[in-house]
Write a structure and sequence with these properties.
Length: 64
Amino acid sequence: MEKTRAERAVKKIERAIADLEAGKISRYKALDIILATVNGYFEDNPMTIRSAPRSSSRWPRRSI
């Protein structure tokens, strides 16, 4: 059974952390791998960000 893109991304991140803990790579290289993996995942799977409607805000508006 083929792994999903998310499963492959998690495995890559886990491998980077294991290599970091084993002293095989620097923390900067591990961070670079992790950030590139996360960035690549979200480029392929964009998320929509929903904001709350302004009229339903619980907080009173402040005037300056």
